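hey so u asked for the seq, here:
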Amino acid sequence: MPTNRVPKGVRSGGQFAASSHTEPAVSINDTDFPSVGDADVEQLRALAESNDPLVRAELTSSIRVPDDVLERLAEADQPASVRLAAVNTGYAGTADRAAEDPHPLVRAAALAGWDLSDKNRERLNHDPKVQRVMGFISR
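ran it, C-alpha cells below
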C-alpha cells in the first residue's frame, strides 16, 4: 500500500512543488563607482573625502592623484585597506611612510617599495610582526 507523502493542504507535488509567491522587495542598485582614470585633480580631491573607504582606496590607482591627497590617504586614521592601497602605488616616498605604519600588513608591503631606505628595510626585516606577515605571504 503506497504512503501518501503530500503534506496536508497541498493539492499535489509535495514540499518541493512550485507555488505562487510575490517578488522580493529587495533590489540591487547601481553603485555608480567612480571612474578615477578620467577624473581631474579637483574631482580626485572631492572623492578623497568620500565616506566609502573603497572609493578612497580606488583613488590611489589614478596617475593624477596629487601628492598631498596620497599622503592624506596614507595617514594612520585611514582604514588599513586605504593605507595598503596607498603604499602599493609605488610613488616616491610611499614606502618609507608605510614603514612607520601601525599595521604590520602595510609595513610588510613597504618592503616591496623601490624607494624604501636601507635603514627602514633593515628595521622591517627584523620586525617580528612584519616577518610573520611575510611568512604567510611566502607559503
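DSSP finds eight helices and no strands in the chain. The CA atoms of residues 131 and 137 lie 10 Å apart.
lmk if thats what u needed
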